[in-house]
Amino acid sequence: MGDFLSSGMSMAELGARVRAERRARGMALERLAEVSGVSRSMVSEVERGTKTPSVLVLDRLATALGTSIARLLDEPVRPEVTILPRERQHVVRDPSGWERRVLSPVLPDVEFEFMRTTLEPGVDAGAFAPHPPGSHEYVAVESGRLRLTVGGVPHLLAAGDSAYFPGDRWHAFANDAADVCAYYLAMALGRADGAHHRPKASRT
To answer: What is the distance between the alpha carbons of residues 189 and 112, in angstroms, rounded to a whole number?
Structure first.
């Protein structure tokens, strides 16, 4: 996938942030691998900056750390009025044909993420692991059609539709149509208590 961050962040910088978040939580590398369901070798390569993670892998690492992709990509700003110009918004792209644009600034002690995602025709973004209990996610479809699967149950959303679902369940996003799907997702994470469990196989 190459250097997938539009902001120009290097893989070494991203790896250093993943490692710093892991160490701040007192987690061994093996524990992060177990909790996230990502292989130890992959976690090690990501931390060393020698492997570019897919968006799904990066999300699973962030979830296991009790945080968001946005916090791994950016430094917190002061909780005041903050303008985030388009050129400063982080964009992560997955080789399968979808991208996520982070629209929300990172604030100290606030685990909230607002993003816009586009899925090319026929693209399945994969299954995302449950976030900590008390997490909430809101989806609004801008264009196209979205198949939202929560806890193994699919829901079809058309342009203009919106939905809420508990973020502490397996969830997946896919575009089965012949047109590009664009949707907004707002996510408020619950407090991680450190009692993570190894993710079970997805039913999607």
So the answer is: 6
Q: How do strand 112-119 and strand 124-128 relate by DSSP bridges?
A: unpaired
Residue-wise burial string across 55-72, b where 16 or more C-beta atoms lie within 10 A, e elsewhere: bbbbbbbbbbbbbbbbbb
Q: pTM here?
A: 0.73
Dump strand ranges (E) for 40-180: 91-94, 98-102, 112-119, 124-128, 136-143, 145-150, 153-158, 162-166, 171-174
H or E segment to which residue 35 belongs: helix 29-36
E strand or H helix that includes residue 188: strand 181-188
pLDDT tens digits, one per residue of 11-42 = 888 898 899 889 988 999 999 999 999 999 99
